[in-house]
Amino acid sequence: KNEVEQSPQNLTAQEGEFITINCSYSVGISALHWLQQHPGGGIVSLFMLSSGKKKHGRLIATINIQEKHSSLHITASHPRDSAVYICAVEGTSGSRLTFGEGTQLTVNP
Amino acid sequence: DTAVSQTPKYLVTQMGNDKSIKCEQNLGHDTMYWYKQDSKKFLKIMFSYNNKELIINETVPNRFSPKSPDKAHLNLHINSLELGDSAVYFCASSQVGRQPQHFGDGTRLSIL
Q1: What count of other Cβ atoms lies within 10 Å of the Cβ of residue B29?
Q2: Interface test with A, best of B56, B98, B99, B105 (most A CBs within 10 A)
Q3: Peptide bond into B8 cis (omega under 30)
Q4: Taking the alpha carbons of A58, A49, A25, B36 in that order, is the dihedral positive or negative?
Q5: In this predicted model, what pLDDT tens digit does every residue of B54-107 receive, in sequence order?
Q6: Contacting residues for A64 by C-beta, under 8 A, at least 6 apart
Q7: pLDDT tens for residues A65-93?
Q8: Which among B41, B98, B101 is the nearest to A84, CB-wise?
Q9: CB interface of A with B, residues 29-88, below 8 Å
């Protein structure tokens, strides 16, 4: 069993829908990262958080440290949001990242 | 200006060959990483250097040897390439201590 589990693995939505991607982890962490990988392959860091909630445009990330769970929300989804979203946790002893398997999001027009 | 640049973007070679992938960052970061992304798109840490010093060395065959000539560069040399080495290799960098990581565009390595 992976230390970082994401759900769902695949998600198809219609443009405008509210999207939620979940991430659960089983180890102690110092921070949790949400990354986006576009079809072209490049990886972009969306959020890094260790408590509470962060918002950037239409994207919102939350984390519950006690429950070892994080969610990534996308409001008013758009076809350009189609990508793989990856959750990664940073351990307590350094900057090593352990990754989830990613969620493939497809937003149809 | 590209923050983290890797070369080459594509690398096609035969089994048994030796190849290198170069990575440079112009962000002034102290820490650099190499990750491997397999055919199922799963990312895994291989190595991490902080100020030219190796700090993470996962269970990677010793055919893989990272080299950091200075803190802005972390190159990956692979000896005696095998079919299972086919993957996308990502370089990344960050400041020390709970900072976002910046990724290169990846190098797609294909072994024939």
Answers
A1: 20
A2: B98
A3: yes
A4: positive
A5: 888 787 889 999 999 999 999 999 999 999 999 999 999 998 777 889 999 999
A6: A70
A7: 999 999 999 999 999 999 999 999 998 87
A8: B41
A9: 30-31, 33, 35, 37, 41-45, 48, 50, 84, 86, 88
**How many Å apart are CA A44 and CA B104, to the nearest integer?**
9
CA distances for A22 relative to A34, A74, A86, angstroms: 11, 12, 10
For chain B, what is the HEC assignment? CCCEEEECCEEEECCCCCEEEEEEECCCCCEEEEEEECCCCCEEEEEEEECCEEEEECCCCCCEEEEEEECCEEEEEECCCCHHHCEEEEEEEECCCCCCCEECCCEEEEEC
Structure tokens at B54: 């190796």
Residues in contact with B7: Cβ distance below 8 Å, sequence separation at least 6, in sequence order: B21, B22, B107
Paired sense of beta strands A103-108 and A10-14, if any: parallel
By the 8 A CB rule, do A66 and A80 touch? Answer: no
C-alpha distances (whole Å) from B32 to each of A18, B52, B97 are 36, 9, 12
Q: Do B56 and A37 touch (CB under 8 A)?
A: no
- Residue A103 Cα, gap to closest chain B Cα (Å): 10
